[in-house]
Amino acid sequence: MPLLTPTRALSGLAALLLLSLLWTLGFPHRYDTSALPIYSHDAPKEKPIGASLIPEPLVEDAGGEGHPPEEQEKGSSPSTADGGQKEDCKNVRGVDKVMVIVRTSKAQVGVALPTHLKTLLSCASNVRVFSDHSGKVDGFRVYDALDGITDETKSNHEEFLEYKKLQAIKNHRPDGEKAKALDKWKWLPMIYRTAVMAPGYHFYLFIEPDTIFSWTNLVQWLDRLDYRIPYYIGAPHTIDDKRFAQREPGVILSYGALRQYRTTYEERHVEEWESEVASSCCGDLVLATAMKHSRVEYYSSKGLTETDTPGKMEWTQKYWCMPVVSWHHLTFGENEAFADSQKEWTQKHGWETPYVHYNAFEQLIMPHLAETKDDWDNISSDTQLKALPDRRDENVGGLASAPTDSSTCQTACQNSDDCLQWKHREGECHLGKALRLGAKAPGKQKWTSGWILDRVNKVTGDWGKCERADWRFNQ
């Protein structure tokens, strides 16, 4: 009898059809899903796809060197550190996706964090502090960023003598300059340790103890970016034709960047990167090389992160409507003023309205401008009029000679169409068309400064009130 008969063939086909029907209607199975699109760093016209539809990063080595969730550093959260803000800033959408990493030293932060930093970290859900020693400060665990450097490297470089003292003598007070020489060695292992200890966050912000930033602007900015793209972001600086993210106002790495960096570090750190750190001036410069090796592109955040203080920076139309994300090296008074401005802003406008340069100028700068300000250097420097001995100066600024007092210097500025401000001391008159506040002058300098207020109001009025924030970066 043949194995395959028409009856058997029909029976087999019927069985296959029945199994197919049961599979479709009754058996559990998984459908293929399309990959989500990748967004560019340019701000989209419409809000990107909701965060709930974007997959969370894979949490690798969970537990590793980090603490379990209940033991992770959550910040000391002093009840009065943030001035008693109405809304708990830790609960603002996006804050829990950001890891804040503070790079410091025992010479900088021996027994306590700066007041402004404690205020900032009181909003952070996730914090790491890296230094040249391990321990605790203000309730935060301090990690030794240098313990992963090879013994051979430590033996071959003189700056590690100070490091050995820090490990051997508990109460050793490090020399500031010697401790500073260790800073460049911290960057690469600190970032690697962060990738191992806390791999599951969307963005990582690396700051200095004297960095200050706006939480509301930071989370709004990062919410516009796709964390899966390998971002290496910071204020631009150039050394030897190499452009990199300057450390002071903060360096931002995305989850995508950290993932690629971690793999490359494990392959290259000992054999290549440690020797490069030894011959380099700066850790943030070497970081640029490491990111390039990791195939992570640099994005400039000029205008969003500022390397100058509000007093020193030039206020221009180009960045007028850009949000202020961070500043660096503010004075105690500037830190207090900025913290107060942020508290007032979020209480009035909530956490989803950007705080732009225009707002910062109106709150922090304009109230301090005056027609005349004694013992003040406003950094006017575009034109310098100096009285030279045994010589009558040619006509400058509508005057027969260089101004001899503050009133004639002010007149010289008024007679120059594009002059916005001036400063004077004996024998010198400086005119400025760039708008700056400056700072109190040391006693010996004896500067008197002033602004042509009607021109300042006209110029800034023409720049507008910024109904829409300008989030563009990488310019």
TrEMBL record:
Gene3D superfamilies: 3.90.550.50. The keyword Transmembrane applies. Keywords: Membrane, Signal, Signal-anchor, Transmembrane, Transmembrane helix. It is found in: Membrane. Residues 1-28 form the signal peptide. Residues 57-89 are annotated as: Disordered. InterPro entries: C1GALT1/C1GALT1_chp1 (IPR026050). One of its GO terms (cellular component) is membrane. PANTHER family: APPLE DOMAIN-CONTAINING PROTEIN-RELATED, BETA1,3-GALACTOSYLTRANSFERASE. This is Glycosyltransferase family 31 protein. It comes from Bimuria novae-zelandiae CBS 107.79. Belongs to the glycosyltransferase 31 family. Beta3-Gal-T subfamily. It comes from the Eukaryota. The keyword Signal applies. It is a single-pass type II membrane protein.
